[in-house]
Amino acid sequence: MARQDEKQRIRRKLQEKAVELAAMNRWEEALETNQQILGLGEDVDTFNRLGKALMELGRYSDAHDAYQQALRITPTNSIARKNVARLDALLARGFESGQVHLKPRQQVDMRMFITETGRTAITTLVDVPRSPAVDALVTGEKMTFRVEGRNVYVIDADGTVVGRLEPKLGQRLAELINGGNRYLAAIAQSDPRSVRLLIRETYQDPAQRNRISFPGKLGEAAAYVSSLRYEEYEDLLDDEEHTDEIDVVDEEYLATDEEEEIGLEEIEQDMGDDDDGIEE
Known about the structure:
single chain; 6 strands; 9 helices; globular; alpha+beta
């Protein structure tokens, strides 16, 4: 009995380490840690974490195999099924076969988005194309902006447009960027339904000192950040034995499909009324 307890203790420690490494985008180490956990016994959650690490490393065939192993254990597992479908699409389009070439992804430490109210936002992109570039987006992937008139386009490392900021927010940021402000952006969530983007103001031009980038509740995205790295751990919610292993879970699995975009509906009026800037 003591030996079994010790094995469970080691397993829990490794699971905590795997989550921590994922939060820091240290995917090679996360991969090794999850492989160690499998050495102590197979389970769905570990295969899902393994698949996530392999996807982040661009090893799509291996990730596909890992998720298939999760389905072998639990055929109804929604995380594995979702990612197998996504990987089927990527592999069919030539990823890992030499037909499609992408520049190395530049990952952002998501903790950088935890900042004071008004300087961080989360939004859903519009005009997102169906393309290999969009299919390959991963959480934490760094994006850049291209301003064209009142529109702000979101660009990946290859220079490919993956979407556009919704009009009200786009117009506001276009003005602020043209006025000298600078912003950091990263993918918060990407799936066949939508692409969500985190944005943080990294520099405020002195000429913009009386304007808040994201007034009102749109700035509450910082509270959302800590959950974003854990989209693969949904099943831990349903297992009371594991509830202490992680303290946050991606809001994707807590909200209903009808839940409103964080802050956007409530902030539209604020944005419309702030043509002349907001006093801090």
